[in-house]
Amino acid sequence: MIVEGRVIKLGDKIDTDVIIPAKHLKSTDPEYLAQHVFEPIDPEFYKKAKGAIIIAGKVFGMGSSREQAAIAIKAAGVRAIVAESFARIFYRNAINNGLPVIICPGISKEVNEGAWLKIDIESGEVTINNTKKIMCKPVTGMALKILEAGGLLEYLKNLRGV
Amino acid sequence: MNKSLTEKILERAAGKAVSPGDVIEIDVDIVAFHDLTGYHVIEVLEKATGSNTKIHSIDSLVVAFDHLVPPPDVRSAEIQQSIRSFARRNALRNFHDVGYGILHQVLLERYVLPGQVVMAADSHTTTSGALGAFAQGLGASDIAAIVLTGKTWVIVPHPFKIKLVGSLRKWITGKEVALEILRVFKADYFNGMSIEVFTEDPKTFPMDFRVTVANMGIEMNADALMFIPDAETIDYVKNERGFEPKLIVPDSNARYVDEYTIELDKVEFLVSAPHSVDNVKSVRDVWGTEVDYVFIGSCTNGRVSDFEIAAKIMKGKKVKARCIAIPASWNVFKRCMELGYIQTLVEAGCIVTYGTCGPCIGGHFGIAAPNETVVSTSNRNFIGRMGSPQAKIYLAGPAIAATAAVTGRIVEPGELA
Ligand code: SF4
């Protein structure tokens, strides 16, 4: 699975209240959520998110279990998130919704805003501006199976033969 | 054997030997959701199975309304209505409608036992770790999968040991200990680890304090936080449920990735300053900060001992900052009423209700205005958490919050004398 896109950089400890504030949690509609993604820090974020890859620091997605955080980012058109580390629940929510997330310690220093990134999800190889290659952690195990199925719902349907 | 509590619980749940780092499938003892995540869980269930959802184990499923209690708008009422009808259709036995309590408190009071695996659609599920359960929050889809199959997958976390020695000074509580851990380790250190807390003397660290620390395990980004069950755990379960629980404890030579000792006598009054939980400061460093609004409650600090401290501090005084106080459940509220704490808080001018998350999540019941300074006993001070992104939230224990309510400033309760 290969994902490519232009880089938007964010910092450390991006929390779920910043990704999608609680007042929007009474909906699970991807289109609605996308328009409010990152609203507290950048209300216009969704306008530049299409086709982007987010590069972030430590414990991206920390905080609440709201699955809307992953849904909103994906629906805004973000293709993948590469972070130094992820909060456990967010990581699973992203995978469960078919949004690729790659753990990559040290990535923030390697990549500038606007760079072009190519990610091989299974091998963990990340190519920056078609030249420099670095190795990140590949997605493996259950997470890879769910991501390949297109998300947990599809995975569950396959399991149950629905 | 040299197994930690984490490994012992997960081995039972997996039915085989496990080691840290393994990806394993486990049986889940208790699965739970509340109103704000519950409708989402049900949406996923219905997408996966159509209208004939077969719940794996009715007795293992717990539902309690708390976030949208009482419903502040039509959409919230509608969300609760849809879950209520799901509960009826599926003849749920452990369903708690509005007026009962915050899910995590309900789980402690009525369902969780030491050594169990608890998975709920809310990040503060770590709270159940106070009883020595392996408890984690998950998103709606993962929870839906457990409702259907009774199982989930986890990565076995690396166990880390924290020892509590000595005893706390007056009015210093579990909250200050949780903030002390965050002060030392910051919010990203425990990613991929489970924290196992050993108390030297069970009596020096009562259950209410354990609950607060376990609750904030998620703020430490730990995979789980568990207190090693002891005499205090037995007492709590006996009092709440009327029987003595079996305890699972780690082996005496269990292996930990590392350990850290907290000398309780040295823990001081602490706050988390805006806008991150690990921006921990001594109260002395923010002394005199003016406060507009105080919230005492939430799944972190909504228990009897919290209101005992608040009532002792507010007795015979009037609040200067507006104050909202919310015991975590009907049970806690009733006990606080019997002890006269509710009356004291009302006399002092607090608005008091019970069994709702209230302003903790910025949904209703006391939204913070732009540029206001809030002191909250809750667990998160992220930008916009309690309303306006321009509000500044300080997280504190019950003594500092109650003192802020009556003085309108962040100072230690000694100032009141
Ligand atoms: S009280 Fe606050 S932290 Fe606790 S469950 Fe409710 S919203 Fe979440």
How would you characterize this protein structure?
The complex is a heterodimer of chains A (162) and B (417). Chain A has helices at 16-19, 30-34, 45-48, 68-75, 88-96, 107-110, 141-149, 152-160; strands at 2-9, 52-56, 80-83, 101-103, 116-120, 125-128, 132-135. Chain A has a 7-stranded mixed sheet with strand order 4-3-2-1-5-6-7. With 162 residues, chain A is α/β, with parallel strands linked by helices. Chain A is globular. Chain A is 32% helix and 20% strand. Chain A has a single domain, classed as Aconitase, domain 4, CATH 3.20.19. Chain A starts with a strand and ends with a helix. The longest helix of chain A is centred in the middle third of the chain and has 9 residues, at 88-96. In chain B, 59% of the residues are buried. Chain B is an alpha/beta fold and 417 residues long. Helices cover 31% and strands 19% of the residues of chain B. Chain B has 2 domains: 5-263, Aconitase, domain 3; 270-407, Aconitase, domain 3 (2-Layer Sandwich). In chain B, strands 4-3-2-5-6 form a 5-stranded parallel sheet, with helices on both faces. Iron/sulfur cluster binds next to loops of chain B.
CATH-level-4 superfamily name of chain A: Aconitase, domain 4
Main β sheet profile of chain A: 7 strands, mixed
Tell the overall outline of chain A: globular
Unreliable residue runs of chain A: none
Gap between N and C termini of chain A: 26 Å
CATH architecture of chain A: Alpha-Beta Barrel
Strand content of chain A: 15-25%
What is the overall number of helices of chain B? 12
- Give me the count of strands of chain B: 18
Q: Give the strand line-up of the largest sheet of chain A.
A: 4-3-2-1-5-6-7
- Give unreliable regions of chain B as ranges: none
| Class inferred from helices and paired strands of chain A | alpha/beta
Task: List the domain count of chain B as a whole number.
Answer: 2
Radius of gyration of chain B: 20 Å
Largest sheet of chain B: 5 strands, parallel
Quaternary structure of the protein: heterodimer
Say what the CATH topology of chain A is: Aconitase, domain 4
* End-to-end C-alpha gap of chain B: 54 Å
Domain Aconitase A/isopropylmalate dehydratase small subunit swivel (chain A): 45-99
GO molecular function (chain A): 3-isopropylmalate dehydratase activity
Pfam family, one (chain A): Aconitase_C
Subunit structure (chain A): Heterodimer of LeuC and LeuD.
